[in-house]
């Protein structure tokens, strides 16, 4: 292959967005693969003498094979990108996507809590196309890719997806056969090992198993320690035949230390040592995950196919967690909470914080079935690519709350009949690291149980009028019925609450493609969020609120110059959420709010020259709570929504077998709450990598947070807003052996 001159670098000043630059290489040698488009096109393998248009789409049959035909921004992060960055968790992977911010263990939620385009995506995480609503921390050891679809997508996925949806794509068996062993160790003391074994067991069948184990400190933060392991076996029969069946599973166990970060002070997170830990040494979050998947794909004819998939998941969480909640002073009368004005008048060495327990045992179970029929037909000179689908499923959920009521300086922190769970207190500047005191025994609180049934039917048509003009149109009808029960009742927690929602979602988008390397689109899409969507009564009261309704408009373009070696994209959009839930002065919730996000995304990814790969991304979000009755929120910026985010990652083959690279993640300031009273400063984090590659093995050094920047990674809006600091400077050395 001829060397490419880096003239395309000038385009990077205009277009930037994260995407994946390379698919896994096929069994036969091929030149370096181009980057995936930041709008979602997976990397192409460019073979000398063949068209650069030969490439794969996402895993979703709902989106179609050619993502140029998708009037929506889609980003695909694949294995090669994540390996070069040393990313091992879903949270690490999603830092590549501007417009995504991370949340901590918000309220009753544990695991990956994500904001996408200014809206929560807590229940918009998917595993192989199925809603992955279990509360656990997700690893990448069993994944081939992560797909991020921007904007409301209820036509594709049903309820939720206000800001978009995130789909994890599992590794699947192939006939190529390979074994890959990996090991890594960090300066924090995290040791990790992985195995990926893919083996043919016949002319049309194969098995694959991915295994992961790790133990140690995930960050520089004090007391952080994880012990995790997982296995993901799968088998496929009928490869290359009209009927193919795949059975797979994900089994994972996590035993991690929770991190609730710092309380706010004077309008920002309290300024203490970033490694300070406010909790007990026996805190833990233990998660057991089991997911079983059965997929049957049948090719009916050259133009039609049928796909049926069933997934069962069971996630159990045992959480003993403690968080800093409220600042004050300690004296003979115990802990005295102070108002913000009183706190600001005192030096930090005179302040203490209450330690509040957040203990619960959570059980999440889901079983869903999806059937998709795809077909192509031509009528009246118009080609139709049709999708007909149906989904049925049931979710069940239980949350047994516990609390630990203790004392501070010998004085009870809670009323005799209280359940607040204040377990102890700690000096703000010098917290002591001890086990939970015997004076704060665990007691059972409310048991919340719930269930929901989902029925959905959808149809989508991509109409091709000629080589240049296409139109995408889709409808989906959903019926969502949920019930929540509580054993300890109150005005905001009734004994039983029920909700049934009927909603029709729309997806429309014309496309103009004047050449094979250009695609321009407009799109309109809708989605809905029932108030019992998370199977909890998040708004209190005895009657559920009507669903939030979301509408999005997007205009954009996708370009692929240099025979697909470079992918560019740009888009502008507006997402409006009506019936947004907010509290009035009496503490009751109403569905009277409006939240609007206007923004833009720019992206470039690909190969600028032989051996030089780069992707970059930028997102601008102008978010506003347009209307609200909650005091102090109207006109404010929604929490955890920065106006500007950007990412850059680049690697270059400086010599045969040697690769040097690095990049940055940048984020402007954001607020911890919807009243905009606590602000977290912006930051730029720098990372770097050095890799040595041979046919049978790789060795890589990753350096994280080179400048040792003190920044905040995840935000938690509850209790006035807490912020979790990111890791300090650290390094990881890893090796991979293939045979």
From TrEMBL:
Keyword Nucleus in record: no
Sequence intervals crossing the membrane: none
Family annotation (InterPro entries): Beta-barrel_TonB, Beta-barrel_TonB_sf, Plug_dom, Plug_dom_sf, TonB-dep_rcpt-like, TonB_sidphr_rcpt
The keyword Transmembrane is assigned to this record: yes
TonB-dependent receptor plug domain ranges (all copies): 67-165
Signal sequence range: 1-22
Membrane topology: Multi-pass membrane protein
Location, primary (coarse class): membrane
Gene3D superfamilies assigned to the protein according to its UniProt record, in alphabetical order: TonB-dependent receptor, beta-barrel domain (2.40.170.20), TonB-dependent receptor, plug domain (2.170.130.10)
Top-level taxonomic group: Bacteria
Sorted UniProt keywords: Cell outer membrane, Membrane, Receptor, Signal, TonB box, Transmembrane, Transmembrane beta strand, Transport
Protein's cellular compartments: Cell outer membrane
CDD domains named in the record: ligand_gated_channel
Ranges of residues in domain TonB-dependent receptor-like beta-barrel: 254-706
Assigned protein family: Belongs to the TonB-dependent receptor family.
Protein name listed in UniProt: TonB-dependent siderophore receptor
Organism for this UniProt entry: Roseateles agri
Organism taxonomic ancestry: Bacteria, Pseudomonadati, Pseudomonadota, Betaproteobacteria, Burkholderiales
């Amino acid at each position: 292959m001829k060397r490419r001159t880096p003239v395309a670098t000038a385009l990077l000043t205009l277009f930037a967005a994260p995407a994946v630059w390379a698919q896994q290489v096929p069994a036969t040698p091929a030149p370096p693969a181009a980057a995936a488009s930041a709008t979602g096109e997976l990397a192409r393998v460019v073979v000398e003498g063949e068209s650069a248009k030969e490439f794969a789409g996402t895993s979703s049959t709902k989106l179609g094979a050619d993502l140029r035909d998708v009037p929506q921004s889609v980003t695909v992060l694949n294995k090669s990108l994540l390996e070069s960055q040393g990313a091992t968790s879903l949270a690490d992977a999603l830092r590549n996507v501007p417009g995504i911010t991370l949340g901590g263990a918000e309220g009753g939620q544990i695991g990956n809590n994500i904001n996408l385009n200014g809206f929560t995506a807590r229940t918009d995480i998917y595993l192989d196309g199925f809603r992955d609503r279990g509360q656990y921390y997700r690893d990448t050891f069993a994944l081939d890719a992560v797909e991020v679809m921007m904007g409301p997508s209820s036509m594709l996925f049903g309820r939720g997806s206000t800001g978009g949806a995130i789909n994890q794509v599992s590794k699947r068996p192939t006939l190529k056969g390979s074994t890959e062993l990996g090991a890594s160790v960090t300066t924090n003391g995290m040791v990790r090992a992985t195995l990926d074994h893919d083996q043919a067991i016949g002319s049309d069948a194969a098995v694959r198993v991915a295994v992961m184990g790790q133990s140690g400190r995930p960050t520089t933060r004090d007391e952080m320690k994880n012990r995790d392991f997982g296995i993901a076996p799968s088998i496929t029969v009928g490869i290359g035949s009209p009927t193919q069946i795949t059975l797979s599973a994900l089994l994972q166990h996590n035993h991690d230390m929770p991190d609730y970060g710092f309380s706010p002070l004077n309008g920002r997170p309290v300024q203490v040592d970033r490694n300070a830990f406010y909790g007990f040494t026996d805190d833990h979050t233990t998660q057991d995950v089991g997911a079983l998947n059965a997929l049957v794909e049948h090719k009916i004819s050259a133009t039609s196919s049928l796909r049926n998939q069933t997934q069962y998941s069971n996630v159990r969480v045992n959480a003993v967690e403690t968080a800093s909640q409220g600042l004050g002073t300690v004296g003979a009368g115990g802990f005295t909470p102070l108002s913000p004005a009183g706190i600001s008048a005192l030096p930090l060495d005179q302040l203490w914080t209450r330690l509040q327990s957040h203990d619960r045992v959570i059980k999440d179970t889901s079983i869903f079935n999806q059937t998709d029929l795809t077909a192509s037909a031509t009528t009246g000179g118009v080609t139709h690519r049709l999708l007909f689908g149906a989904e049925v499923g049931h979710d069940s959920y239980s949350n047994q709350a516990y609390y630990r009521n203790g004392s501070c300086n010998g004085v009870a922190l809670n009323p005799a009949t209280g359940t607040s769970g204040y377990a102890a207190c700690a000096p703000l500047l010098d917290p002591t690291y001890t086990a939970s005191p015997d004076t704060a025994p665990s007691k059972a609180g409310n048991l919340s149980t719930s269930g929901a049934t989902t029925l959905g039917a959808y149809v989508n048509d991509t109409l091709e009028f000629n080589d240049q003009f296409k139109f995408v149109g889709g409808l989906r009808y959903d019926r969502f019925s949920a019930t929540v029960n509580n054993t300890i009742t109150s005005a905001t927690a009734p004994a039983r609450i029920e909700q049934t929602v009927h909603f029709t979602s729309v997806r429309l988008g014309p496309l103009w493609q004047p050449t094979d390397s250009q695609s321009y689109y407009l799109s309109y899409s809708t989605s809905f969020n029932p108030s019992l969507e998370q199977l909890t009564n998040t708004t209190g009261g005895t009657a559920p609120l009507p669903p939030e309704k979301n509408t999005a408009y997007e205009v954009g373009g996708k370009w692929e110059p240099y025979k697909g070696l470079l992918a560019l994209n740009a888009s502008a959009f507006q997402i409006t959420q009506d019936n947004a839930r907010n509290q009035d002065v009496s503490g009751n919730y109403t569905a009277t709010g409006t939240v609007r996000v206007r923004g833009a995304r720019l992206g470039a990814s690909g190969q600028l020259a032989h051996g030089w790969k780069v992707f970059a991304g930028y997102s601008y979000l102008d978010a506003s709570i347009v209307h609200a009755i909650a005091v102090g929120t109207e006109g404010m910026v929604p929490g955890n929504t920065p106006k500007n985010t950007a990412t850059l990652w680049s690697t270059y083959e400086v010599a045969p077998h040697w690769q040097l690279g690095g990049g940055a993640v940048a984020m402007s300031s954001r607020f911890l709450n919807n009243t905009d009273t606590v602000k977290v400063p912006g930051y730029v984090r720098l990372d770097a990598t050095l890799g040595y590659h041979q046919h049978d093995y790789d060795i890589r050094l990753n350096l994280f947070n080179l400048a040792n920047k003190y920044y905040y990674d995840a935000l938690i809006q509850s209790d006035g807003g807490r912020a979790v600091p990111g890791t300090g400077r650290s390094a990881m050395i890893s090796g991979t052996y293939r045979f």
